From TrEMBL:
InterPro entries: DEAD/DEAH_box_helicase_dom, DEAD/DEAH_RhlB, DEAD_box_RNA_helicase, Helicase_ATP-bd, Helicase_C-like, P-loop_NTPase, RNA-helicase_DEAD-box_CS, RNA_helicase_DEAD_Q_motif. It comes from the Bacteria. SMART domains: DEXDc, HELICc. It catalyses: ATP + H2O = ADP + phosphate + H(+). GO terms for cellular component: cytosol. Its EC number is 3.6.4.13. The lineage of its organism: Bacteria, Pseudomonadati, Pseudomonadota, Alphaproteobacteria, Sphingomonadales. Residues 412-475 have a biased composition (Basic and acidic residues). This is DEAD-box ATP-dependent RNA helicase RhpA. Belongs to the DEAD box helicase family. Residues 1-29 form the DEAD-box RNA helicase Q domain.
Amino acid sequence: MNFADLGLSDQLLRAVNESGYTEPTAIQASAIPSVLMMRDLIGIAQTGTGKTASFVLPMIDILAEGRSRARMPRSLILEPTRELAAQVAENFEKYGKYHKLSMALLIGGVSMGDQLAALEKGVDVLIATPGRLMDLFNRGKIMLNGCSLLVIDEADRMLDMGFIPDIEEICTKLPANRQTLLFSATMPPVIKKLADKFLTNPKQIEVSRPASANLQIEQRIVECSARGKKDALLDILRADDVTTAIIFSNRKTTVRDLASSLSRAGFKAGQIQGDMDQGDRIKELDRFKAGDITVLVASDVAARGLDVKGVSHVINYDVPWHPDDYVHRIGRTGRAGATGKAFTLATPEDAEAVANIEKLTSTKIPRVAKAEVAPARAPSKAAVSDDEAPVEKKSRVRKRPGAKSNEVAAPEAREPRPAREPREPRAEREPRPEREARSERESRPEREPRPEREPRPERQARQDRDPRPEREARPAPRPAPISDDGPDDGWNGPMPDFLNFKLGS
DNA sequence: AAAAAAC
């Protein structure tokens, strides 16, 4: 199967080609022809499957005919978060480079000026989060009766976020004879009802969850006490193959605390969470993409769909409340055929949440104990027993530098180690994650580059198979001699065994 | 339980 077989225009194929892609993913192969035939569509899929390109590509060709009129957008894409909306907009720019389509990105947190100006001129594509869209609509700045193509992306996420009433209202403002595409990772009854109400004879396409079936991601549960989390985190971050990591926490406050603790510990760390204003969110994300920061501490605002290349590790500092979120979070690594590791720090209280995750993904995630992790670190710390110390209830992560057990160890604070090659395989100590036949069957092998994970247009084809295409600005990975004793980087302690499993193979 | 999304 080739992109050329899907009925797309030559200009579009050229843009796709120049992005380095030749072979469509499963969802693209089945969705694109139907969308081009103007059928309604239900796509049970999430990002990482090539979902975005499966509607962006045919939309570009559909919209290539016809003209936009002032305040009457011709198509509308709804996204649950601002970041996702921005990402879809980037896709339109990339694949629409040989088309003259106009676009407006309507998201909150930024000034309305540009958005209003774009609307006034008339746009072919509106990419929006519901809040800002409704706001502008209620101000009379948008007419939706010329909008003949609607995409509802991440519908289940919209549900979680309470957007369904907004979505329904928006649907009623669009012409009835429109084309509607709905994407959702799951199909809870509310979403099913929504689809029945607003879609006509839709074609249904289902592709597997990429993360649960993604053999490129090595997963581990790190069993630790609540107080041992920070140490475990540091050990992971100092492991030799961590190049860039996203650390997820369940709370915005924890995100903030961790980001500042890690910065103080010498990591190039940043954060992204919903209390930050949009400008800062974008800035942090850009710094992360550019490699100015190598550790991004994030709330679940970044869990879904976020496409950053070359993330070597995802660390769940907290076990996510919803098992779905786990799948989304770890899907931030192992992208574009690269390998990745996902660690989840779990306390005994997290047992149920962990069980739910394993049930959802139908895998047993190997456990490693935090006890083995805590290496003799700095002499100054020796006095403090880390393990069964009296429980401190409320004390947040840290107070003053020099505070004890919960402190991120500062004495040996330094740059995290530079990127380098994965270590030689050692004697295999950890059980390998189960790899069932079903994953093979369900998941497309992740070898081919895919449109959703493309290096930016200016850096193309050459890097197709480079797991970290956007990061050449950084110090090049040093082919450092590989010593089983761990490198001499000032981290005085043995490499914790649990970090020492090998990727791939 | 938490986070996200409009001014």
